Sequence to fold (807 residues):
Amino acid sequence: MVSRSTWIARSPMPGRGVAAGITLSMLSAVVLLPIGALIWQGVQFGPLGIWDVINRDRVWAALWLSFRLAFLAAGFNLVFGTLLAWVLVRYRFAGRRLVDAAIDLPFALPTAVAGIALTTLYAPNGFLGGLASQIGWKIAYTQWGIFLALVFVGLPFVTRTVQPVVEEIDTEVEEASATLGASRLYTMRHVILPMLTPAALTGFALSMARAVGEYGSVIFIAGNIPLKTEIAPLLIVIQLEEYNYNAAGAIGLAMLGISFVMLLAINLVQIWSRRKIGHV
Amino acid sequence: MHIQIDQIAKSFGATSALHPVSLSIPQGALVALLGPSGSGKTTLLRILGGLEFPTSGRVMFDGQDATNMSVQDRRAGFVFQSYALFRHMTVFDNIAYGLRARPRATRPAAAEIARQVTRLLDLIQLPDTGSRFPTQLSGGQRQRVALARALAIQPRMLLLDEPFGALDAKVRKELRQGLRDIHDETGLTSIFVTHDQDEAMELADMVVVMSMGRIEQVGTPAQIRQTPATAFVKDFIAA
Amino acid sequence: MSDISHPTRFRRASDDSPVARLILIGIALGGLGLLVAMPLLVVLSQALAEGWGAALTSLASHDARSAIRLTLLITAIAVPLNAVFGIAAAWFITKFDFRGKAFLITLIDLPFSISPVVAGLCIVLLFGANSTLGGLLVAGGYPVVFAVPGIILATVFVTFPFVARELIPVMVEQGRAEEEAALTLGASGWRVFTTVTLPNIRWALLYGTLLCTARAMGEFGAVAVVSGKIRGQTATMPITIEMLYNEYLSVAAFSMAGLLTCLALITLTLKTGLELRHADALAATRRH
Fold:
């Protein structure tokens, strides 16, 4: 009659065994076991072996490129995405609903499709790439191309996290600011943007986490020149094609490490913003 | 039904919601569990209904140990604080739910279910609302539908969690009498939770005053008013 | 008040100046035009560069049809698996109190934070012919990597959190009271689920399944690693697009891309429709 298990509180709700069974077994089989295999590969290979693989110019260059461009693209999305959220919530204009729906296209469009479309558009012989090349700006097959692809895949994150916050802003706060003599610009900078910052930073971190590991939309437009436009996920694919599992595993572990750091960063941002504002 | 609560305690992690409490509720009584929020009254009610399990102690129904009886087998007509009506079902389907959920062998035929639901709708004086959805009803009407839904399973007792909590003062007064009438008509042992001492005193035959997971006093409304057993009871009924 | 006596119309304190509005809307539309609208037009114009006939012919080829069939097969297996998982996980997490719940949610979300290529790599390392487990499976005649099971596994991995993370906030918000009420009325567990829970979560379930389907059909990185890219056998639609594009078969590549684009647009339309009509039945915040 006294509940035996202290791990899970006794409850009259049905299906505990079935639900827990499906959840834990699928989680283990699909996610944890494969990740465990990667970590086990690293353990067998040893830290020295991993370091040998990572500590090559080509690998450093690829990891640094993926990280840096993901950061820059997320930064661009931080600004552009916040602007989009503001425009979509506050302004009424023809086609607003269409624009709102279009922001999710990067979630719905397969990355390979986005990749070949962006490449064709921004290649030197493409429509926009041709225009850019007239002023000597090469986009596709340079780091600009990678940046563009990463902006595309990360586009919705900031907008979708900031939008609900803009909706919740009580316009009385802005009116109060105005009655105290603040200009509109001052109100924007000192009242509204601080309210949006936590959500925008969460979106930034999500956008960056996505961009660091992005593959499909990037490889077509990147040009994939070692040391210059070769991203880290592509290096893994190249190592696998040469059946070099140790090297692939080492780079994979490095990327997994970056993912965990990003995940930690996202959680910290959310804890910080919850403390500050009370919600995300 | 006679309900015996024997040294029931409940803790959530490190916090104790109920220190061991014991209480005997005679057949057919209308009992109020009265206390401020956090006094453990709702936890006690949910333990009786089988929605929560005690950390220690026993619950006896008519002398039989019911501590581990499943919530389905208890047939406790439970009225939830915000009614928990099934929002996607009509009033009729809400009331019929418990009859339709019976195993095939004991499930009444559709016509019989319809007859019983109609009778219950008459009892709660909402005869023509069967085809409406819960969101189309007023708060007081929802409360009565929740009561009818609980009565439909021919419960062995009636457990009500703040049955008037979400209603405004005028409706509250009307429905108090409604609950009294239904109790007198069915003769069911009924226990309701409330933080409103007027409500407890006016409606109940027996009032159980609770505070901080303990029972402070058990008695008739008159006894509690005239001879409060503890300082807490004195303060609480004076408020 | 008339516009004649007040040539500048009254502007509320919370409104931006018309010039600012114009500039911000201009930036928004311009940016989305360059990033979203133009690429869509490129897909369609490239697919139809040699007319409808050429596009349809390329889609009717043997390899194209087998790619479409494979993608449909994988979606048909991966999406129901994830729907079942999502329901079970959301039920377990929202209907029970246990220690480590936050950690469990983090683990479920993990695939969103991991590069699809790393996901594919993990599966290769676990089931590849050089691993113990993979060696046994290959010897037994059940290869996983460079075969359909591996593609399914990779797809389930990358879409793993979709349904669960849509359902969990909705079920948290709806609480347990209706299920408890059904239990006190004598309903069995299965009956509670099918008659009370399922009707309340159906739109959220549909929404999560929809996003899961879109991602499952379009997954590239993880599938590219495990598929082996065998034409007619393990080449999904996105993989086929890559192969055709690298062979400079532009019309064929973009025809297939166009097909997937149409599916993406249908997904967006359905998604927007759900958000408009059933917003109250969906999770309030979402990020995918």
Notes: The two ends of chain C are 48 Å apart (CA to CA). DSSP finds 13 helices and no strands in chain C. Chain C touches chain A through 109 residues (CB under 8 Å). The first helix of chain C runs from residue 18 to 47.
